[in-house]
Specification:
The complex is a heterodimer. Chain A is built from 9 helices and 9 strands. Chain B has 8 helices and 5 strands; from the N terminus they run ααββββααβαααα. In chain B, strands 3-2-1-4-5 form a 5-stranded mixed sheet. In chain B, helix 2 packs antiparallel against helix 5 and helix 6 crosses helix 7. The chains are: A alpha/beta, B alpha+beta.
Chain lengths: 251, 201
């Protein structure tokens, strides 16, 4: 898309070599892991909890389901799924970043959620699971950081059971011009400052704001999911399109 | 923004339900019967369908239109009448209540909610100490009884005022007599009209 050379990709507004992006993103998340939950609440005024609940409501989760929470980070979506699949189901929390996975594991254990959750450190582009393994795959605020998004979507399609669904919760493009302006002001001026104050890490939150702008918009992502093989792909804009939930089925 | 309202309602109610369930020492036993079951509630007054699901230790609330074990569609006024099981068939016949799916699931959830008896006093004692907590609980119970008695008295007084003092509405005896007279009049009319018909022939 915006890439000029075949072996380069974007890291925020910077263009970097594809091989470097993984370690650059990893550094960002090693750096923010400890304060990740607190920053989420501060940045979104707690609304991220409702976005995640909306994702669960669209998932059709039932007791006994096998669920993969990709880029699960600190485990918010896993916690919601874990209660709903019950003792007969299973949730796998997968993240490429070890620091985030550790924070997530500690948090879920503190919540008493231990019986039906497995933790796997995995790259979304090459998922280490058998074909047709999951009823539901969710990826919340993670696809943006994946280097090769098409490969990741194909990999998710492969491990999803026929009849299963993929849910992609991700920052997207605001629906209104005025909201877009307010949002730009907020995320480029205010957000890095808050990040500097709360998490003592201005650069990581600068990257966050930039990476959101580089992420494909609603219709482009829908197209990408269809190209990867998903059917009946649809999306819901949440909070004026600041976030969008894409849903696709494998038949 | 408005699209997330049902999620906000669910998140809030789920927290309250969790607290209430945790306060009742008998809840694990009650939850065992409905564990893993889902009951959907569609109220006419609300545009969303809420789904209640039970786990081993709590109740969860969601908003979706996916397949569930049982769906109850009704309105708020009828929902309050559901406490009385003898009304069920009448409400279904009147089309005020529709139940789809496993009726047993609906009954199990209803039993659970009716038998949920949170031990408020025990919770309160953690804050106030046993003695004061007991006093507060007793005071609240007495207040409840007092209000009920007062309400009953007020109702009685209003009835007496309307019937005896201001003579606005009839007493039971007057009402009975009036309806008896109406029936008699009706019978007399019937008799007369038959008589007339007979004459005309």
């Amino acid at each position: 898309m915006t890439d000029q050379q075949p072996d380069s990709t974007h890291f925020g507004f910077k263009t970097v070599k594809q091989t470097e992006k993984v370690s650059l993103v990893a550094n960002v998340f090693h750096s923010v892991a400890a304060k990740y939950d607190l920053m989420n609440d501060v940045m979104s005024l707690g609304i991220h909890r409702l976005w995640k609940r909306f994702t669960i409501d669209c998932s059709g989760v039932r007791p006994g389901h096998q669920v993969l929470d990709l880029a699960g980070g600190t485990g918010d979506i896993t916690a919601l799924f874990s209660k709903r699949v019950g003792p007969t189901g299973k949730v796998i929390l997968a993240d490429i970043n070890e620091s985030m996975l550790n924070v997530g594991r500690d948090k879920l254990r503190d919540l008493g959620l231990v019986n039906n959750i497995d933790y796997v450190q995995a790259n979304a582009e090459a998922l280490p699971f058998a074909d047709n393994s999951f009823d539901i795959i969710s990826i919340g605020f993670g696809l943006r950081n994946v280097t090769d998004k098409d490969a990741a979507l194909r990999s998710m399609y492969r491990v999803l059971k026929p009849g299963g669904r993929l849910l992609v919760l991700e920052f997207s493009k605001p629906e209104y011009e005025w909201l877009s302006k307010v949002y730009d002001l907020y995320s480029f001026k205010l957000l890095p400052t808050i990040g500097g104050l709360v998490a003592n890490d201005k650069e990581s939150y600068q990257y966050l704001a930039e990476s959101i702008r580089m992420h494909p918009d609603q219709d482009t992502l829908k197209q990408m999911m269809e190209t990867a093989g998903f059917e009946h792909v649809s999306y819901h804009n949440l909070t004026g399109g600041i976030v969008a939930l894409h849903k696709g089925y494998k038949f | 923004m408005l699209s997330l309202v049902p999620q906000l309602i669910c998140a809030t109610l789920e927290k309250v339900l969790h607290k209430v369930v945790a306060m009742d020492p008998a809840s694990p036993l009650l939850l065992q019967k409905v564990q893993g079951k889902q009951l959907a509630l569609q109220l006419q007054e609300l545009p969303w369908r809420f789904v209640l699901s039970a786990t081993a230790d709590t109740l969860l609330l969601n908003q979706h239109n996916e397949k569930v074990d049982c769906v109850i569609a009704t309105d708020l006024a009828t929902l309050q009448k559901l406490n009385d099981p003898s009304q069920l068939t009448r409400l279904i016949k009147q089309d005020k209540l529709q139940i789809e799916g496993d009726l047993q699931v609906a009954q199990q959830f209803s039993t659970l909610l009716q038998h949920l008896n949170p031990d408020w006093e025990q919770q309160l004692s953690g804050w106030l100490g046993d003695a004061l907590a007991h006093k507060v609980a007793t005071a609240i119970k007495q207040l409840h009884l007092y209000i009920q008695a007062q309400l009953q008295q007020l109702e009685q007084a209003t009835v007496e005022l309307a019937q005896d003092e201001l003579a606005l509405s009839p007493t039971q005896a007057e009402m009975n007599q009036f309806s008896r007279e109406v029936s008699q009049l009706h019978a007399r009319l019937e008799q007369l009209s038959r008589h007339k018909a007979f004459r005309q022939e």
